[in-house]
Automatic annotation (TrEMBL):
UniProt keyword terms in alphabetical order: Actin-binding, ATP-binding, Motor protein, Myosin, Nucleotide-binding
Native organism: Cardiocondyla obscurior
PANTHER family given in the database record: MYOSIN, UNCONVENTIONAL MYOSIN-XV
SMART domains the UniProt entry points to: MYSc (SM00242)
Keyword Kinase: no
GO terms of biological process kind: actin filament organization
Residues in coiled coil: none
Any matching Pfam family: Myosin_head
Name this protein carries in UniProt: Myosin motor domain-containing protein
Family statement: Belongs to the TRAFAC class myosin-kinesin ATPase superfamily. Myosin family.
Length: 151
């Protein structure tokens, strides 16, 4: 079974519906306009993003329901998955902003997590060596800021 067939089995009960929704555009009533390959791929990608977002929201709600059963607390799960700069053949201004935000978030995370861990080690009198975790990240952030500030 290929990925599309698996998708149909898991998500849709009628096999022709995903083909129509990913290859045709409905306007108001039941009038369909054929999409070209790029439009169909965009529709597929948009659907995948919406599906992922819905599944993730459901998962967070389910975890919160289980963890906070019977309480009135509101909670959230935040996941930040950052692994350095993303590189493409051509990087846009949007990608620069994303990379800059990622570097700042990673710096903030490291600063607070390492600080808390080091405080815990000191409190428990655990022998440890100070880790200089800011050098690379602050260098990346400063390079971006200096270029922007000198213009």
């Amino acid at each position: 079974m290929n990925m599309f067939q698996t998708f149909v089995v898991l998500i849709v009960t009628q096999r022709d519906k995903p083909v129509h929704s990913l290859s045709q555009e409905a306007r108001n009533e039941r009038v369909f306009t054929a999409l070209n390959i790029d439009q169909a791929l965009d529709a597929r990608d948009a659907f995948a993003k919406a599906l992922y977002s819905s599944l993730f929201s459901w998962l967070v709600a389910r975890v919160n329901h289980i963890v906070y059963k019977g309480t009135k607390q509101t909670a959230a799960i935040s996941i930040l998955d950052i692994f350095g700069f993303e590189t493409f053949t051509e990087n846009s201004f949007e990608q620069l902003c994303i990379n800059y935000a990622n570097e700042n978030l990673q710096f903030y995370f490291n600063k607070h997590i390492f600080k808390l861990e080091q405080q815990e080690y000191a409190k428990e009198k655990i022998d440890w060596t100070t880790i200089n975790y800011t050098v690379r990240l602050i260098g990346n952030i400063n390079v971006l800021l200096c270029k922007i500030c000198t213009k």
